[in-house]
Write a structure and sequence with these properties.
Blueprint: H1 8-19, H2 29-41, H3 48-62, E1 67-72, E2 78-84, H4 86-94, E3 98-100, H5 111-120, E4 127-130, H6 134-143, E5 148-151, H7 153-164, H8 167-178, H9 183-197, H10 203-210, H11 232-242, H12 251-278, H13 288-297, H14 300-334, H15 338-370, H16 390-396
Parallel strand pairs: 3-4, 4-5
Antiparallel strand pairs: 1-2
Length: 412
């Protein structure tokens, strides 16, 4: 039971339940803990690291793509280790565009040596996302010269909360770093923020501007990022590992538990793949063909994002159809008399002018928010579907089928 991370106290309670009471179990829970400790002390290897390397050698014989590298100190003690099984090797060959490193989980003093070993084991020409750790930045500059380094937008937001301490300042800061815009537009928005809130002498703001090309969305328009801007997908895997790992585990136990956790994650991925291929979304709007086509192309998780856009379009279409029916009836009666025709023609011109003004006002709000230099234009009903483009960006950021992997790349 300990191999599958069942705590000894829970295992003891299970034995009590199966035997019919505490009196039928001939030992106490303390005896069970002592027995487990005794088994650890009587391991066939002289040290925990020796047992771990023996375990790695056994995996190498079974998996031709298995890779392991470790580092030692001046006293020949293990200080860091990196390993990769064949499944992870294939995953990386297929999804090598974006690499995410999260060093906030179980951080140790040997972080730089361990990270450098990890980076030497992989190759990428695209992008690496980190949480801003200085040792990680040094390792990337040393090993991955061609890769673009991007800082986690979530960690930057957390730092901004502590340094700006104002809802209006945070809103302006997030508008600068998160919106899809050109570099010139970013510089103008940034300058406007400095002038509005008098942040010219703010040391943190000035330091962030110096490394703006590491986190601002405007500087990553020319590179494929798979919709990722943070290391939060690593945080999702950390949650899975936190359920089974603890400081009391030996290195051999940690390695075996990590392998078992990866097996569970991959099994969930296979289950999701099966559901995606063998189940279909039920049509819920009058845009039947659009829903069916989208559900057949995308995974269920991605389709949820697309379906929200379909629902918006469906509501717009229904309102347009209702207005068209009323206008047809109005035009029918107005065309019967010259007076009615003239009156309706003037009223239509007046209402059209008002409606165009309302739409222009909405475009001006969006223009101010995005910092766009493009002139506003009113889309005709025939061109409204897909004419925005923002919905497509939101879909791209959700490109993941619930797999929990560190790297992901394409939608299905």
């Amino acid at each position: 039971m300990t191999r599958v991370s069942i705590r000894p106290c829970h295992a003891y309670e299970y034995m009590v339940e199966q035997s019919g009471g505490y009196r039928r179990v001939i030992f106490t829970v303390k005896d069970l803990y002592n027995k487990i400790d005794q088994q650890r002390m009587t391991a066939p290897f002289e040290s925990d690291s020796e047992g771990t390397l023996s375990y790695m050698n056994a995996l190498t014989t079974k998996d031709p793509h298995f890779f392991c590298r470790f580092t030692t100190d001046s006293e020949d003690r293990m200080v860091g280790m990196f390993w990769q099984d064949g499944h992870s090797f294939v995953d990386y060959q297929c999804y090598e565009d974006v690499l995410i490193f999260d060093n906030t989980y179980k951080t140790n003093m040997r972080l730089w040596k361990l990270t450098l070993g990890c980076l030497e084991a992989v190759e990428t020409d695209e992008a690496v996302i980190t949480d801003g750790d200085e040792a990680m930045y040094t390792a990337i500059q040393t090993v991955m010269l061609e890769a673009r380094h991007r800082l986690c937008i979530w960690h930057i937001g957390q730092n901004a909360n502590g340094h700006l301490k104002s809802a209006e300042k945070l809103k302006a800061f997030n508008r600068c770093i998160r919106k899809y815009q050109m570099v010139e537009q970013f510089d103008r928005l940034w300058q406007d923020m400095l002038d509005e809130f008098d942040l010219h002498d703010n040391d943190w703001i000035n330091s962030m501007y110096e490394k703006r090309d590491k986190f601002c969305q405007a500087f990553f328009r020319d590179i494929f990022m798979a919709g990722m801007r943070s290391t939060q997908r690593c945080d999702g895997m950390n949650k899975d590992f936190k359920l089974v790992l603890s400081k009391s585990k030996t290195l051999v136990q940690v390695v075996s538990l990590v392998d078992r956790t990866l097996m569970r994650i991959r099994n969930n991925q296979e289950r999701d793949d099966f559901n995606n291929m063998n189940s279909f979304h039920s049509v819920k709007t009058h845009l039947e063909d659009l829903e069916k086509q989208a559900s057949s192309v995308f995974t269920h998780d991605v389709f949820k994002c697309i379906f929200r856009e379909i629902m918006k379009e469906a509501h717009i279409t229904l309102k347009y159809g209702a207005l068209t029916a009323d206008c047809n009836r109005l035009c029918f009666y107005a065309s019967k008399t010259q007076e009615g025709y003239n009156m309706l023609k003037m009223e239509i011109d007046r209402l059209a002018s008002i409606m165009e003004g309302l739409v222009r006002k909405e475009h001006e709000k969006a223009k101010a928010w995005l910092g766009s230099d493009h002139p506003s234009s009113v889309a005709t009903p025939a061109k409204r579907r897909g004419g925005d483009g923002r919905g497509e960006e939101e879909t791209g950021e959700a490109r993941q089928g619930g797999d929990g992997r560190v790297e992901t790349r394409r939608r299905r």
